[in-house]
Amino acid sequence: MLQEFFQHLFAKESHWSRKSGLAKEQIAIVHRYRRNKDLWDRHYARCHQFLINSLENQSIVSNQHNETMETLAIFGAGLLHDVPLDYLSKKFLKIYAIDGVFLEQTKCLQKKYPKIQFIECDLSHWQKDYFDQKNPSPKFFNDFFKIENSNNIHNSNSILNSRLNISQLIGQCDAVFSMNILSQLTLLPTELMTKFGIQEDIQKTFCHKILKHHINDLLSLNPKICLLVTDFKQFIKETSKETGKNFIKNSTNSDKHQTFEHEFFNLLPSPSDQWDWSLAPRGELAAPIELTLRVGGYHIL
């Protein structure tokens, strides 16, 4: 914990990303990965295989049409653990790694993979505007609700309107990935809006639009192939300290797991592949709790 504290203290990041805790979360992931490397590597291997298989199939189609695959954009690139960099660096001439912040240890990968270009920007469409305010308040979310639901859907004052125009930064890309970020985009706004006592319908509308904007960002680069990897279901297993038996807290279900499904994922097609990721084995989050994620690999295009 002390090592994580000092890493975050000296991390280079923008004002808004520090306020939103992006670097802090990435540092925590570094240490969680080290503690659970074998379990996480299985997840990363499935991510790699899904991406490679999908790109190989696309290459067959591209070759038939005499098309080339030269540029790749990775949204939610993070630590770049969940993409096969050796394979990608041979396949593409340019790789754009896009996220809110990158740790120095990640940027050092550019020495080994010089085709990577790091782009730091607000993928959420709202965090920079919110945290750059002098006194962030619930008015931000209420104003969003009023503006986004006004009759003029092209209102230039829309809070989520063109805050990120990634296509202006990098142009078109032949391939686009979204890596394990979609389910994360709604966590912080939901936490803040719940804290502020904002109505549930406003929360749902806000989160739904954030996810739609993310999909639009991916497609705005006019890719030949667009792949998305995200968890879409959580399984929480809790063990009774008294009996050592599994049980479900606050549930009458006879299953040993408490299950939560992300309600916004009707935006997506059915996953082409899926697997379970043991994110936090017993003792990682709390002594009796074990958290597993059901992850899907999706072909958006």
Structure description:
By secondary structure, this protein is α/β, with parallel strands linked by helices. The chain contains twelve helices and nine strands. Strands 1, 2, 3, 4, 5, 6, 7, 8 and 9 form a nine-stranded mixed sheet that branches. It has helices at 2-9, 15-20, 22-35, 37-64, 85-91, 104-107, 109-112, 127-131, 139-148, 166-170, 187-195, 200-219; strands at 71-75, 94-99, 116-120, 175-179, 225-239, 246-247, 257-261, 273-280, 289-299. Mean pLDDT is 81; it is low at 4-10, 151-162 and 242-255. The longest helix is centred in the N-terminal third of the chain and has 28 residues, at 37-64. Helix 9 crosses helix 12. The termini are far apart. Helix content is 40%, strand content 21%. The chain has a single domain (2-230), classed as Rossmann fold, CATH 3.40.50.
The gist of it:
Helices cover 40% and strands 21% of the residues.
**Number of DSSP strands?**
9
Shape: globular
Low-pLDDT residue intervals, each spanning 5 or more residues: 4-10, 151-162, 242-255
Radius of gyration: 20 Å
Q: How many discrete structural domains? A: 1
Mean residue pLDDT: 81
> Considering DSSP H and I runs of 4 or more, what fraction of the residues is helical?
25-40%
Distance between the termini: 41 Å
Count every helix, treating DSSP H or I runs of 4 or more residues as helices: 12
CATH class: Alpha Beta
In percent terms, what proportion of residues is strand?
15-25%
CATH topology: Rossmann fold
Topology as a string of helices (H) and strands (E): HHHHEHEHHEHHHEHHEEEEE
> Which architecture would the CATH scheme give at its second level?
3-Layer(aba) Sandwich
Which structural category fits the helices and strands? alpha/beta
Q: Sheet with the most strands? A: 9 strands, mixed
